[in-house]
What does this fold into?
Amino acid sequence: MYFRLNPECYFVKGAKCGAIYDLLEGYLYSLTSSETQLIESCEKNQTVVGDEPFLKQLKKLCIGNFYDNKVYIEKIRYGSPLAEAQVGVPPRLNRVFLEISNCCNYNCWYCGAHGVYRTLGCLGCNIWHESGDFVPEGRWRELIDEIADLGCSSIVFTGGDLTLDWEKTMSIIDHAAGRVNDNIIVINARSYTEDIQADLNGKAKVVVQSEDPSVIHDDVFNLLLLPPEACHRYNGTTTYRGNVTVGYISTDFRAAKADLPIASKNKIPKLRLQSFLRNRQYHPCLGNSLTVAWNGKVIPCPMIRDDSFGNISDCELSTIIQKNQDKIERYWANNLDMIDRCSQCEFRYACDDCRALERALTQNVNEKLLCNYDPLEAKWE
Amino acid sequence: MGMELEAEPWDAVVLATAHAAVQLSAYFPGLTRQIMTLLVSQCLAIRAPRLMSMGVMPNSLFFGETIMKFFTENHDYWYEDRIALSFPGNMGMDLIDESEDTLENKLQQRFKQKEDQEFCKTYLKKWRDFFPDSSDLRLVLPFDPEKVRRDLLRNGLNQLTLSVTERCNLRCKYCTYSDNYSYSRGYSAADMSFETARQAIDQFLALVELGNRYNPYRKISVGFYGGEPLLNFQLIKNCVEYIFTVYPDYDVLFTISTNGTLLNAEISEYLMKKDFSISVSLDGPKEEHDRNRVYANGKGTFNDIIQNIGPIIDSGYEKISSLVVFDVTSDLFKIQDFFNRKDIPPVSNATMPNRYHGCTYYDRFLPEDFERFNEQIKMAKEAYLSHLNEETEKVSFFDQIFGNPSYKTLAGPAVLTDYSAYMIPCTGTCTPGKKIYVDVHGLFYPCERVCEAFTIGDCRTGLDFTRISNLLDDYFSSLDYCRECKHRKLCSKCFSTLLTDTGFASSSEHCKHASESYLDDLSFAHRIGEESYDFYSRYFDRSDAQIKTLTGWGEK
It folds into this structure.
């Protein structure tokens, strides 16, 4: 007798234990050490000896089945691996952050300019004390055309306070609407008005950033920034309402680590088929993404500012990508298989990760600090 | 339901003209067949209105059953074409469209155990939301030239192949240019001029330059083809030097397909120095090779080729491979042993002589030849299956004829997405212009296998995107069998499969018996997976390593 997981169920092995990812239902099943060994052997088409109540349970859960003979299970995937593996296929650029301003009249204590560590810094606004010239408005418009021609489907417009020169911002947004499918703009709650929402209607989705939990808007996406001590109110989850995501800000994440695991049992998001498949190949956040800073520098993400691929003031984005193919692909492919600790974790393809923050805290691009799961012992702290 | 097609009188005139042009070429000795067919293709390109009432196809092309059953010795499986995945029979995927009312009853009839019934019921429920709406599968005609242009700038322009001469010093018995193939050019003594080659290179690289904006990762190759390309070696050298001089910033891979008889020391040295990827036509050991690959005087070519490639292999040069053709009288086991030798270049492609529409090559074989061949294939497959778990570095002949098609059967189709991320929604065809084949006169074609009635541009004016769109329209208009087909995503048909002198044969004529072959492919692909759970990941690594060695393209 043989037992195999269904096509939509992937087995992922960690250092001690394994997990089964059901990509249709979105469930992640954590296995004990002995269950892991059993499933690993089954997935190698080895015979099942004796009556196995655990396997019967899996059948009842509809994630695997028994077979009289060796069987081949074609695992679910998305797209054609053969087409994607061809040499010279276009870069899979899915998202570009454009910092179209570096001006702001507020002085938020958690701003990037103050060097305060934060999660989801990429989705918020910041200003930076950096040298360089502002990219002219016309160049931003040209750049949007280049991004569209590269097949990119999403642009996140951020600043600075983008409402300070609203005419310029709207000119750029108008240009992007219709060229790129998914446009997102980040606006500080203090600058957000109904008029602004009306201007953006149908052209870009709005992310309103606020550190005040009482300022939640129903008709936009809210990024709520909280200090660690406030996070318990939200039960450690990233999202506490459909349109609210919580980001954490701290002057000392190391000290806050015990209270604030970024990856914790409760925070592993519901599995999504495409995310799982993508995470096996790319970093969950850095993968397929680039940022163009206010001064034209092309950088891996809005929060990794010390490594640049080039400057769009001098040349087209495609040329920068061409010249830096290996370097960019290394950032993109730096998925959790490459992170020492995560590579031993069975939940690695379900997990989020902020490389910028980990890198800033550990001074090492391949280390993981903000997690409370020990894959060697298979225990949550 | 689709509307009945009504051809306009103009279409009848154009078609009649096209047919007549080919016939008439015999009566006008002053006009070559090429010129005559160019006239025909011009007629086809400018015709209006279209042969089909555009917009009708979407409603008629992609409906019908999408599931088919196949077997291995161990199991039965269902292949579901909408999502391009196969499932073991006990999952009941053939009942996915069954209504709640009838499902229960059918499951009771099929499974004795209640737990099996429950499993299937729950499993089908799990899947229902993931099945694409049938509207996703529609093809919108006509193709828009601007969309075709953008698609090619992004996904195409990978390869320029220059047919530097139509001369050949061999008369291989299965040659596509022999009388066995009605719809390809015949033998000829024409050479390409440097001016023609230069213009083609300029046109190609100008498009590549434009395309960088859409695909900065594009890898490009310039190939030399014939006839036997080394009969015009000076032109090859001129082209290479031209590209190095005028386009120094381009990382061009040079490739050549040669019969190997002219690979003398001087030529070999040059090709290696310029880092060519060299493909030598070599069918196996002497008795196999010399049966078909002969000089014009009938003498076999094996000894000359082995003598010529020896120094290349001895030098450690790795960008050399063998192109193998075998037919129904080949000894597959001898060929396998031969290519496992270390002094023989690895097999990069192995095929049987093409069975294009209008091919008569196979007429020479007796029914018992086919029977013997089928028996041999069975034995070879069993031999292949018994060695699946052995670690080998070299991609073998059996890998190419059994492992590779199986891998492609499983990894090729677009799972859970619509027909393709690219322009072409079904069948295995490319968008013409992904590769550009240039004949000796400077006319552009989709590939070396497509006859001269289907130009897609020329070296003076470049790619003609309207012509490409028309060609795509005509091709998809010929796919009348697809509505009944249960393996659209597995389909490997392309222009060359269906083409005639003046258009495309209808797919219903060609595909009637195709199901059997796809079921065989699926069955063997699954048999491999049953015998070796990690075969495909290991095969991908080996095959990928071979491609990297032959092209020098280390990273994507």
User: Anything to note?
Assistant: Chain B touches chain A through 58 residues (CB under 8 Å). Chain B has a mean pLDDT of 84.
